[in-house]
Amino acid sequence: MNDVSENYEHNNEEPKLNDRPNENLKRRSSGNEDEPSKKIHSHSNIVAAHYNHLEEKGLKERFNSPIFYLRNFNNWVKSVLIQEYTDKIREKDYGRPLRVLDICCGKGGDLSKWQKARVEHVIFADIAEVSIDQCKTRYEDLRLRSGRLFSAEFIATDCTKNTLRDKYKDPSIKFDLASCQFGLHYSFESLGQARRMLANISECLKPDGYFFGTIPDANEIITRFKKSQNRSFGNRIFNIKLLFNPEDEYPLFGAKYDFHLEGVVDCPEFLVHFDLFLKLAKEYGLELVYKARFEDFFKDFSGKYRDLLQRIKCFETYPAPPNRELIGDEKDYEHVKNYFDNMTNKHEKLGTMSLCEWEVATIYLAFVLKKCKSTLDSNGKQVYIHTEKTSPSTQK
Ligand SMILES: C[S@@+](CC[C@H](N)C(=O)[O-])C[C@H]1O[C@@H](n2cnc3c(N)ncnc32)[C@H](O)[C@@H]1O
Known about the structure:
Layout: H1 44-52, H2 59-63, H3 68-92, E1 99-103, H4 111-116, E2 121-126, H5 129-146, E3 151-156, E4 175-181, H6 191-203, E5 205-216, H7 218-227, E6 232-234, E7 238-242, E8 256-261, E9 265-270, H8 274-283, E10 286-293, H9 294-301, H10 306-311, E11 316-318, H11 334-341, E12 350-352, H12 355-361, E13 364-371, E14 373-376, E15 382-385
Parallel strand pairs: 1-2, 1-4, 2-3, 4-5
Antiparallel strand pairs: 5-13, 6-7, 7-8, 8-9, 10-13, 11-12, 14-15
Helix pairs in contact: 3-12
The chain binds S-adenosylmethionine.
C-alpha cells in the first residue's frame, strides 16, 4: 500500500487515488481541531502569521501600487464568477434566499460583491484571526452605510484541519454557493488537508449548488519554470521559487514554492495538480463544469461584463493621459505601442495592462464545480449520482 493510503482525520474511506509513492505524501500532521500545541508542524501557522501581519492599505496607496490594475482584474474575475453563478441558481428558482460559504475569505475582499449579488447569508471563514476581525469590521461598516445587508457569520479557523460545520450557528445550514478565492492551494500541503478542505466545502452544499474559485495553474508554473534557467522566475513585481527538486518526480501534495507578489503575498504555497483535485473533488460529489486560465476567462466573459471591466478600472489608458505616467516601464508596453503606432486615429485611447501585471494574471485559473445529487445505497450510505461517465477535460 502506498503512502496515500494512510488514514487521515475524518477520512474513513478507502483512498481511491493511484499515486506514486513519494516521501512528500507522508502524513505530516495529525490534523487537530483547533489545538494550538500541534499547529507547529504545519505551514498553516506561517501562512496565518503572514496574512495576520498584512497591513491595510489606504486608497491612495492602492492607486499608486504597481499592481493596481492586476488587483482590479482579479476582482473582475471574482465578480463575474459570483454574478454568473448566483444568476444560474436564480434562473431555476427566482426569489430563493441564497446562502453562501466564503472560505479563505481574507479581509472580506468580496463583501460588496455578495451585497451586489443580493445574497441572504454568508459565512466567512479564514485561518488568519486578524483578517477575520477586519472582515467583520468591514461588514459592520458596509451595513451602516447600506442600511440593509445580508446576515453573516465569521469563523477564524484552519479550514484544512477543522470541521467548519461544528462552528456554524445552524449546523444544518445548506449553501447554494461556496467560494474559495486564491486560497484552495494552501490545502494541497497534504492529502489530509486537501480532503478536509473539500469536506468543508461540500458537506453543506446543496445538490446543484456551485463551488467556484481561483488558484495558480500548476501547469503554467511548471512551464515557465522549465523556460527559466534556474529554480525561480518572475519579474519586478513577482517571483516564484520552487522549493522541491523538479528533477525528481513532482510531489502530488506538498509541492511547495515561495510566491512573492509586491506588497500582497510573500509566503509558501503548494501546486495544485488539477486532475488530482478533480479526482478528489469527485469523491465529495463535486464535478467540473468550467475551467479556464485567466486569459481565456477574459475572452469568455469580457463581452458580457465589459462595463464592469471599465467601471472597476481593469485596464490602464494608453498612451498615458496628460500629467500622468504609466504604471510600468516603457518595455512593459511594447505590445500596445506597436498596435498604437499602426492606428490611424491617434486621438483614440487604448486600454491595456503592463506586461509585468499580465504575467502574474496569466498564472491563475478559475474553476467551477457543481454538487451532484445523491442517494442512499443498500447499506444506507450516501452515494453521489455522477453525471459524467469519463473524466472531464481539464484543458480549455
Ligand atoms: C490570497 S488570500 C485571498 C483572500 C480572499 N479570498 C480574496 O480573494 O481576497 C488567501 C487567504 O487564504 C487564507 N488561508 C490560507 N490557508 C488557510 C487555511 N488553512 N484555512 C483557512 N484559510 C486559509 C489566508 O489567511 C488568506 O486570507
